């Protein structure tokens, strides 16, 4: 989730108005072939029933099968009929005229019988060609809705190929936060570089997607831009060439990701390679004219090491940091996107965004009403880390946060039933963080940290909703916690703390 300007200075200014809330934090807005040696691969599921995609063998696609659903908060985005399995995105960026030229191959499974195929895509990018399994098909785009005129059958697999070009533009964000002001999706800087941040949606501004967190897919990218610029995306850089004045980078994301966790950027970058103590390869991409490791990015291996001690092995095969010209930070899968500002580049934010790879990325909320599952735990882990750095007990850090949490809850609603027009406000971060501290004190250290480690390990490459998560916690701890969770997640007033 996007992270804004931070809490420093906030407490000294007194009142927590809407403009201040926008500057608190966020983590937007932003991984299957197994992990690196010694790291767990995610669980697969049943194989597709019909012909595999030309882009990826059927066996590799099985891990990307999902139980898709409509969203309770933003029902107009995404459609459960489509289970995206693999996106192959061939993107060329022309800085001279801010033009994106694209060929997209989407391999998907139909979850039911239907006369047409619904996807999310913006009419800003005219489609010049569309085929389904090699046969031309008609398409229409109205607003952010793409319709492919072709019937589909339950559990059958298809490959849709689209060619399109134009100048993408961000879409309005359902948020009052200042760092959402530019919108969601594809953004272009004054220097004609690009970046993407798209939580809770916005992938549809630059490719045709089932733009919903319940639908996780595999990704391959071919990114072309005039040299010396380069294209950066999620996953592992599998090739990098320059020919005819064009830089071409190909990227492979080996484990499935929801559309909001995808990143692509074109710009003049330098590239630094690091490694954690456990052997996680880390890459940092930042402005070619600036520092190779700006802000706290040099501490990225330490952040991974610290989180592994608490949560267990890092769940993916690589980690990266992409620094772009904005004010936010986002847990984009295996390649976090950080704005070029002191707060976004701080070690605390890097810990937060890396923590999302356990909470939010390997196990992802199936509905946006449960974004607190991501943000509350990442915020709590950030609080633990901050307390260690400050040499204070984590309980004291939570007491500091408790001083302003009621105002956040009052302004934007309870964490589990927030105002849909105020996505990403502080209410989904701090209240759940306080809740985790209360649970820790209630069930004890041993069981608490077992819960923290076992949930993402047991749900790798999956999605879950609130009922599944909370039932699992009760079963794992042997505690009856219904009223505890209801009070913290659904009440408009903050529960009393012990």
Topology (elements, then pairings):
Elements: H1 10-13, H2 18-21, H3 58-61, E1 82-94, E2 99-110, E3 117-120, E4 127-132, E5 135-136, E6 138-142, E7 145-149, E8 157-166, E9 185-188, E10 194-197, E11 216-226, E12 230-233, E13 236-243, E14 246-258, E15 264-267, E16 269-275, E17 281-287, H4 300-311, E18 319-324, E19 329-330, E20 336-339, H5 347-355, E21 363-365, H6 372-390, H7 394-402, H8 405-412, H9 427-443, H10 445-458, E22 462-464, H11 466-477, H12 482-490
Parallel strand pairs: 1-11, 17-18, 18-20, 21-22
Antiparallel strand pairs: 1-2, 2-8, 3-7, 4-5, 4-8, 6-7, 9-10, 11-14, 12-15, 13-14, 16-17, 19-20
Helix pairs in contact: 4-5, 5-6, 6-7, 6-9, 7-9, 8-9, 9-10, 10-11
Q: Under the CATH scheme, which class of the domain at 364-490?
A: Mainly Alpha
Which class of secondary structure composition applies to the elements? alpha+beta
In DSSP terms, counting alpha (H) and pi (I) runs of 4 or more, how many helices? 12
Which stretches are poorly predicted, pLDDT < 50 over at least 5 residues? 2-54
- In CATH, the architecture of the domain at 364-490 is Orthogonal Bundle
**Strand order, largest beta sheet:** 5-4-8-2-1-11-14-13
What amount of the residues lies in strands? 25-35%
What is the rounded distance between the termini?
29 Å
- CATH superfamily (homologous) name of the domain at 364-490: Neutral Protease Domain 2
Determine the mean pLDDT: 90
Tell me the overall shape: globular
At the third CATH level, what is the topology name of the domain at 364-490? Neutral Protease, domain 2
The biggest beta sheet reads: 8 strands, mixed
Radius of gyration: 21 Å
Helix content: 10-25%
